[in-house]
Design a protein that fits this description.
With about 220 residues, the chain is α/β, with parallel strands linked by helices. About 35% of the residues lie in helices and about 25% in strands. The strands form two sheets. Strands 1, 2, 3, 4, 5, 6, 7, 10 and 11 form a nine-stranded mixed β-sheet that branches. It has a two-stranded antiparallel ribbon with strand order 8-9. α2 (about 25-30) crosses α6 and α4 runs parallel beside α5 (about 120-125).
Length: about 220
């Protein structure tokens, strides 16, 4: 343990990944009972949405050896999700790795830790999310593991799960639940469209708010 790389993992099917593309992270989170979202410390650094299958990395604090290898292992359209095991002072990803990622077709990077060169990453058009930004670099010695369960943004990410992110943050759809979650997202979107139509028609306030307040004894 400590130096392990797994390449054969179950994955969300490509057609489901495409179906989630463009879905709002907030709706996806709501569709999962308001679970499976990363904490607000994981921030979009390039202002670009992301959607793809997770290739996970558990990195030694201050080391990015396995992040480099994950870029090589990732299939086009995958998202590399990195746990730095608590380190936020050593960037594990920057412009050079970002250039490699774009050329390799990687869909994005999510780091519970630090990245750097965010202006260059934005120019590359690479979705990049992280807990911190720092000019500090790191080692390339290991240990580290690829495609193992990790905690990123205080939520569990399994290799092969679906990662969806936008300016609101990042959510993780468990691989085995993706089809059901997609159905729930569709239902939520339809409900939102109906509510917006009602607001535009003059129904500004929802009647069930007062019903809830009456049930709580606030209103007669």
């Amino acid at each position: 343990m400590g130096f392990r790389i797994f390449t054969e993992v179950p994955r969300v099917p490509a057609e489901l990944v495409e179906a989630f593309r463009g879905k709002a992270a907030a709706n996806v989170g709501d569709a999962m009972g308001r679970f499976h979202f990363m904490d607000p410390g994981i921030v979009s650094r390039t202002g670009l949405p992301v959607c793809g299958v997770a290739v996970t990395v558990s990195a030694r604090p201050g080391d990015n050896l396995m992040v480099h290898k994950a870029l090589e292992i990732a299939s086009p359209g995958d998202v590399v999700v990195v746990s730095t095991n608590g380190n936020t002072t050593s960037a594990v990803f920057g412009e050079l790795m970002g250039t490699t990622a774009v050329r390799a077709g990687v869909a994005g990077i999510v780091v519970d830790g630090a990245i750097r060169d965010v202006e260059a990453l934005e120019a590359l058009g690479l979705p990049a999310y992280s807990r911190a930004v720092t000019p500090g670099g790191c080692d390339k010695d290991g240990p580290g593991e690829i495609n193992v369960p990790v905690a990123c943004g205080n939520t569990v990410v399994m290799p092969g799960d679906l990662v969806v992110g936008d300016d609101d943050g990042v959510v993780v759809v468990p691989r085995e639940d993706a089809a059901v979650v997609l159905e729930q997202v569709g239902a939520l979107e339809a409900s939102e469209r109906r509510r917006i139509a009602a607001i535009e028609a003059g129904e500004l306030f929802k009647a069930d708010i007062d019903e809830t307040l009456r049930a709580r004894g606030v209103l007669p």
